[in-house]
Amino acid sequence: MQKRLLILLMDAIMLPILLWISLSLGKNEPMMPKGNEWSIFALAVFIAFPVFINLGLYRAVLRYFRNQTISTILTATLITTIVWALVVKFTGLADLTKSGVILYWLATFTFISGSRLKIQQWLYGHKESVNLSKRIYIYGAGVAGTQLASLLDSDPAYVVEGFIDDNPTLKGWDVLGFDVQNFDKTASVLINAPENTEVIIAMPSISRPERQFIIERLEPFPVKVKILPAISDFTSGDFRVSDIKEIDIDDLLGRESIKPDEKLLPANIKGKAVLITGAGGSIGSELCRQALALEPTKLILLEMSEFALYKVEQELNEVMNTLDLDVELQRVLGSVANPKLLDKLFKRNEIHTIYHAAAYKHVPLVEENPVAGLTNNIFGTRILAEKALLEKVETFILISTDKAVRPTNVMGCSKRIAELVLQSLAVHPDCKTVFSMVRFGNVLGSSGSVVPKFRQQIADDGPITVTHKEITRYFMSIPEAVQLVIQAGAMANGGDVFVLDMGESVKIVDLAKKMVSLAGLQVKDKYNIDGDIEIHYTGLRPGEKLYEELLIGDNVKGTQHPRIMQANEEFIAIAELNLLLDDLEEVLAKDVLEDIKKTLTTIVSGYTPWKTNESISNKIEVNVTSKKVVPIK
Length: 633
Known about the structure:
Helix content: 40-55%
Number of strands: 23
Low-confidence stretches: 60-64, 126-130, 232-237, 612-633
CATH superfamily of the largest domain: NAD(P)-binding Rossmann-like Domain
Largest sheet: 9 strands, mixed
Oligomer: single chain
Structural class: alpha/beta
C-alpha cells in the first residue's frame, strides 16, 4: 500500500511538469500560464488517476512488468491524453497545439513505463542473484503455462527463464516477455543448468503417454521436474504455487488408466451394507473412499489400529458432509481373529458385502513374527469367512498378493493359505456366499512402499538403499488397484482367483535412478564420482525374492474387463485343509520356527523356505531360472 501511495504522489508531481514541458516544446517557447490556464495542470492529474486506477496500473505493475503491462500503459496514457485535450478544447481553458498534445502523450507514456520498470528493477531486480531463487522453465506455452508464468513472475522467489514448447508456430515467439524455444534448443542450456533450476510441465490436459514422453526427455538433465495440477484444479481460481506437484511415480510407469465399467462398480455396494476389514490401511482406506462414493446404506469399518480407524472415519465424515451423502458409518475397533467380536458385529448388522483387506503384509516382519502373521492372515480369514458363510453374506472378496505365488516367505504362504480357505468354502454344498480373491503386486505409496522411502532418502541426501541390483516388482497406484478389486468382485461366481494386469515389472534400481534424476540430482557412482546421491545394495532380506509372479499355473483367461484376468488354480478340499490347519495350529502353539516352516511346505505347493543369508546366491539362481512371463496383456 505504501509503495502505491508513493507512486501516486510521484505521478501527481511529474504529470504537470511533463505537461508544461510538452506544451512549451509544442510552442517553441516556455509556456507562461495565466488565469484559468493553471487549471489544466490539475485537470491532467484528475483525469489520469481514474484511468490509471481502473486499468490496474497501481495493482500489479511493480512486480509484474511485461509486454501486456506496456500495452496497458500505452492505452492508459493515450486515453488520458485524448480526454484531457478534448476537455481543455471544449472548455477553452487554454490554446493547444497538436505537437504539444502528442508530445504530452509520448512523455507520459515514457515516464510511466520507464519509472515502473526502474522501480521494479530496484525492488526485485536483485532476485536473480539470490541463491534461494529458483530458475524456472515452463514446458508448455498454452493457457496454463502463461497463467503459471504470470503467477511465478510476481514472486521474487522465482526467476522465469522462458517457455519450452515444440509447437513450430510458437518457436521464437515472445510470450509475456519470455522467449519460447523448442526442446532441442533449450536442451543445450539445460545440460549446464544451475543447481536451483526446475522445469514445470504446464500441460495438464495431455495424456499419460505424452506426459511420460516429456518426463523421459527431461530425465538426463540436472533439473528438478515438477508438474501442474489437473486442469480442473488449475481453473478453479484457487491455484497456488504450493499446488505444483512432484512427478507422480505412476507417471514413470507409463500406465494409461482404463475407464471403469460403470455397471460393475456399484454392483456389490450401492444400497448394501458393506464391511471393510483393515479399513485404516493403505488399501482398506481407499476401499472406504471408493465404496462411500458408490452410496452403500451402511459402511462398517473394522480396524485394529485406533489412530488409523479415527483418521479414516474423520476423512469419510468430511466427504459425506461435502457431498451430502446419507450413509451410516460404523467404527469397530478390533481384529478379524476375534470370534466374539464378529458374532456381535454380524448380530447387529445384516451384511451384504465384505472386502477383506486386514492382513500383516510386511515380509521381513512376518518372517520374524510368524505366529502373529499366520494367526492373523490365515485363521483370522477363516473365522471371518466361516462367519460370512453362516450368515449368508452375498459377496466376500479377499485382497491377496503376488507373493502368494510360489512363496519364499511366511507372509506369502499365509496369503496363499487364506486363498485356499476361500476356495474350499466356495464349493461347500450349502454355500450361498460368492467367495473370490484378487491378487496383485505392490501399490504405490502404501505403507512400506519403496517410493516414499526413496523420496525421504533423497531429501536426506542419500544414500538410497536397494536390496539387489536385479530385483524387480510390479506396481500399480492404490486408487487403480482398488477400483479393479471392486470390479473383479462384481464378476465373481464363487472361488474365483482374479489377477490384475500390473503392466511390466519395474527394476527397482531403475526406479531409484529416475527419482534421483527428476529431483534435479545425479547418481553418484564409479562413473560419476561428483554425483549427489549414492545407491547402496543391502542384500535380499529374509523371505524376499528377486522376481514376483502373479500366476501359479498357466490356466488363465480374460474377463469382460481388459485389466482383469481370471485364473483357474488347484485347491485343497475343505476336509483335508481343515486337518492341515489343525496341525498348523498345534505347531504355532509351540512357536518353533523350523517346525512352522516345515508344516507350511505341506500346505502350500511351491513354498521354498528362506533359510539363511548365506543361501542368497542359491536363492537368486532359483528365482532367475523360475521367472515366468505372465500372459496378462
